[in-house]
Structure to design on (592 residues):
């Protein structure tokens, strides 16, 4: 009985009566040349348990950037870059690090010897070295680690899948089994007397190897190496070339987890690649299926489409409330170091670390994020430990501050943006809070600008647009405030005002009203009515050098419009806004 249910999909053109969304046509792709992977690795597992499990703790992370990642670089790392990368991984908290392939290059051999001569590797860090199952290469590998006081893992590998057996190695199943056990015997003979050395075996291309065959080989190796709970053997099961959906890999891992001999003496490890773009899913499901250890690269460098990204895996746990046991509190510095060492840039959309992963351009997203930030700040007020407040900001699975990011780039404005994003940038960049209806009005002006320039706008550019639209000159103004004096006389407030309208001076005195009301009365007496619907006062930035901003919504023949005044003095800003409202109303009347 197959462990995999069959889900059929239509091949070729849909019947003429099929719904329009299902009118599929046969493509010109030569898909018939490839075989369904299920027929190759049919796992005898029918009562899988991994779908019901949850990730509750971090596995042992093993970065292989210095070996597997390094061999995939157009320009392999020199000693300086290797050492810098190693120091980064130690600082982040990795406790087991694959440092090289010492039999493959002098650079790798010399780096391992550097670890033997110096205290570059802290005592609690395990050093892993990689070797094929060939006696001369195993000898070279063992030679490289002699004198290292840290715990050492010698990692031996051999490909086991049928195509590799037939095409690459030219060996049948019995011959290959003998070759692997011969290599394992060499490892035990040459390094078995070293008390700080443990062993690891990888049946390369495990995911394309017959389950019973690979199980037999792994059991034979752990028996030969005499695995015990005190000196466990690592069985690393790679998806060397990703060829199936992640559930298939999970079944393969669970089958091994249930059936390998000496299970309490084996650390079950996985090493997924990303050829189908689902390496992350494969690793997560593999851990659910019984894997205790995950090999991969920080940000996923590696052959073809890369090794699994162990940074994303760790931060996925963090986003679910599980401690990843690795420090990503300054992810931008981590990225700079990785880019320097690999000489490869990280994509701006790369999960967690890319420049744009916390950025919203869409108006609906921006509005939701802005509201989420406001709600989070309210809940955090008065808390002894604000960082303990549950994070639930829409569209941001984690708080960017957790990984050392500021909120400056969370919302950026382009032609796809809306009022919420614009308001957020002005609030965070300039400290001004806009009424909601003004946000809608300003968004129309910003939209016209972004449509014309085709680029995003910064907070500085948005502030200039705001001032141009609501507080800037709009040609010849017919109304001006010439003089203003407000004082107390006989215990009453008295304001004397002179306004100029179309070149003619108008003087008036007003009692028992505030200065703003006095100016409105003076303008009304001259036939220039200003009907204020709302008044909002805010400030640009904070401190003694801040500017006051007064925003007025005034009634017009069409409904309402907005004006603003900006000055160091709150009163001057307000009076300026009123004068602008008078000129705005005058122009509107003239336009009619």
């Amino acid at each position: 009985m197959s462990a995999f249910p069959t889900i059929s999909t239509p091949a070729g053109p849909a019947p003429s009566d099929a719904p329009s969304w299902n009118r599929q046509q046969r493509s010109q792709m030569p898909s018939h040349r490839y075989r369904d992977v299920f027929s190759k690795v049919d796992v005898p597992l029918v009562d899988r348990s991994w779908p019901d499990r949850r990730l509750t703790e971090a596995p042992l992370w093993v970065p292989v950037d210095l070996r597997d990642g390094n061999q995939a670089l157009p320009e392999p790392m020199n000693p300086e870059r290797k050492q810098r990368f190693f120091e980064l991984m130690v600082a982040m908290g990795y406790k087991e690090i694959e440092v090289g392939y010492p039999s493959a290059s002098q650079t790798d051999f010399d780096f391992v010897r550097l670890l033997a001569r110096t205290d570059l590797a802290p005592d609690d860090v395990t050093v892993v070295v990689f070797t094929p199952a060939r006696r001369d290469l195993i000898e070279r590998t063992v030679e490289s680690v002699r004198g290292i006081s840290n715990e050492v893992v010698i990692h031996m590998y051999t490909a086991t899948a049928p195509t590799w057996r037939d095409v690459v190695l030219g060996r049948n199943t019995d011959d290959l089994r003998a070759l692997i056990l011969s290599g394992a015997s060499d490892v035990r003979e040459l390094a078995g007397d070293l008390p700080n050395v443990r062993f690891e075996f990888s049946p390369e291309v495990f995911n394309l190897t017959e389950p019973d065959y690979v199980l037999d080989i792994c059991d034979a190796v752990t028996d030969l190496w005499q695995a015990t709970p005190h000196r466990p053997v690592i069985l690393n099961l790679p998806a060397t070339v990703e060829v199936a959906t992640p559930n298939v890999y999970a079944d393969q891992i669970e089958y091994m987890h249930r059936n390998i001999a000496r299970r309490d003496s084996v650390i079950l490890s996985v090493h997924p690649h990303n050829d189908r773009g689902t390496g992350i899913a494969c690793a997560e499901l593999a851990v659910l299926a019984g894997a205790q250890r995950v090999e991969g690269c920080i940000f996923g460098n590696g052959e073809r489409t890369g090794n699994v990204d162990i940074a994303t895996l760790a931060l996925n746990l963090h986003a679910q409330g599980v401690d990843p046991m690795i420090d990503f509190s300054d992810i931008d510095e981590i990225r700079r170091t990785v880019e320097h060492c690999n000489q490869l840039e990280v994509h701006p959309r790369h999960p967690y670390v890319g420049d744009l992963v916390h950025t919203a351009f869409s108006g609906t997203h921006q509005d939701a994020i802005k509201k989420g930030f406001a709600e989070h700040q309210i809940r955090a007020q008065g808390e002894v430990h604000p960082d303990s407040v549950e994070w639930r900001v829409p569209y941001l699975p984690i708080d960017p501050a957790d990984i050392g990011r500021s909120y400056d780039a969370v919302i950026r404005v382009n032609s796809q943006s809306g009022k919420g994003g614009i308001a957020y940038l002005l609030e965070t960049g300039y400290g001004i809070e806009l009424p909601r209806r003004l946000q809608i009005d300003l968004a129309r002006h910003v939209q016209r600008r972004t449509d014309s320039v085709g680029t995003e706008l910064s907070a500085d550019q948005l502030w200039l647009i705001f001032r141009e639209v609501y507080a800037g000159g709009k040609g010849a103004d017919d109304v001006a405030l010439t003089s203003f004096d407000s004082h107390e006389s006989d215990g009453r407030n008295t304001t004397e005002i002179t306004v100029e309208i179309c070149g003619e001076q108008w003087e008036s005195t007003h009692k028992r009203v505030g200065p703003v009301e006095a100016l409105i009365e003076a303008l009304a007496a001259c036939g220039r009515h200003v009907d204020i619907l709302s008044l909002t006062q805010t400030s640009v930035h904070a401190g003694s050098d801040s500017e006051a901003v007064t925003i007025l919504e005034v009634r017009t023949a069409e409904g309402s419009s907005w004006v603003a005044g900006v000055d160091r003095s709150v009163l001057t800003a307000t009076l300026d806004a009123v004068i602008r409202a008078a000129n705005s109303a005058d122009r509107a009347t003239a336009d009619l």
Observations:
- The CA atoms of residues 192 and 198 lie 8 Å apart.
- Confidence is low (pLDDT under 50) at residues 588-592.
